[in-house]
Amino acid sequence: xxxxxxxxxxxxxxxxxxxxxxxxxxxxxxxxxxxxxxxxxxxxxxxxxxxxxxxxxxxxxxxxxxxxxxxxxxxxxxxxxxxxxxxxxxxxxxxxxxxxxxxxxxxxxxxxxxxxxxxxxxxxxxxxxxxxxxxxxxxxxxxxxxxxxxxxxxxxxxxxxxxxxxxxxxxxxxxxxxxxxxxxxxxxxxxxxxxxxxxxxxxxxxxxxxxxxxxxxxxxxxxxxxxxxxxxxxxxxxxxxxxxxxxxxxxxxxxxxxxxxxxxxxxxxxxxxxxxxxxxxxxxxxxxxxxxxxxxxxxxxxxxxxxxxxxxxxxxxxxxxxxxxxxxxxxxxxxxxxxxxxxxxxxxxxxxxxxxxxxxxxxxxxxxxxxxxxxxxxxxxxxxxxxxx
Length: 389
Ligand SMILES: Cc1cc2nc3c(=O)[nH]c(=O)nc-3n(C[C@H](O)[C@H](O)[C@H](O)COP(=O)(O)O)c2cc1C
Known about the structure:
- InterPro entries: Aldolase_TIM (IPR013785), Alpha-hydoxy_acid_DH_FMN (IPR012133), FMN-dep_DH (IPR000262), FMN_HAD (IPR037396).
- One of its GO terms (cellular component) is plasma membrane.
- It contains 15 helices and 12 strands.
- By secondary structure, the chain is α/β, with parallel strands linked by helices.
- The strands form 3 sheets. Strands 4-11-10-9-8-7-6-5 form an 8-stranded parallel sheet.
- Helix 1 packs antiparallel against helix 14 and helix 13 crosses helix 14 (about 340-375).
- It is globular.
- Flavin mononucleotide (FMN) binds near residues 35, 116, 118 and 320.
């Protein structure tokens, strides 16, 4: 198993926990909490982590596992690694030009990077800044459908062929930490926020200061008019249409010629409905425990979902993955691939694009290590082991 010791001057973290500590030191508290925390009582977030801890494998021995191969097939295409960088809003606030850095790092490691509708860099700039990256796009639907379709035209014009429609956000989640910290769009200036910025000068000068000097404060870049984060999105046409229905999915399927993935489904009946409606894959997800504080875990639901749809359908999963072993457990439970949200963001905060590459490499190494210790030369063998919990 290769060992990843920190290189001089490069990323110095050795796992998710260490990257998280470095991210917390670098980022203002308001931004760190926005990324890190769950919703309401954070029951769902704890349950995700507890669920991974409880799940254990019965290892096999005397098997050929000197070079475990975590390759997978997603929607008919082979991928050397079963990871996708998840869409995360405002990732460009973590580091200057952070979304381009993430897209480049994902490309270098050979995994797709999913751009969020709420990214602070527009799809055109990400595509230009990371040529050759496998870019996916995540859609939040605006009330003004014509503007939504125009956005999809821009996405398609960049050669993006995979679209994720997020459907697990039918309301605004209650997040006390964001309200207390004054974090939101628009950002609300306050004494507390000013102190937070003063206590994190590397970020305040290196990220915000640089944006201010070079391109203006970051914004939701896909929103027409490109509002800075300090301004409200007051135009009702660009309010998120949070209540979507099957008719909308059918219309989207008609309009989008590429691959279509429904993100944020948990019930086997909804997954079946997605495939019946012509989706190419789903993401079994609770949005990282950030939306519904009483939701079940993807790990619990995956076996029933896999059984309902059969072996040929592509199932992706995410939420709460901090280690290669967590990813292994989702893959063994029925997922073909795993989205990573916070992990690459912490890599980015800790050390820019090198940090994202390092984080993805560490997770891949941990996954291979888990496979070796379990006696699983490939992901199919991993799923065939006996699992407890
Ligand atoms: C800071 C942050 C912003 C996010 N923004 C979006 C978004 O814009 N669209 C979306 O579909 N999911 C969004 N998500 C959810 C992720 O795509 C993903 O489902 C989740 O982060 C996975 O859990 P993990 O962070 O524990 O890996 C966001 C997650 C985080 C942490």
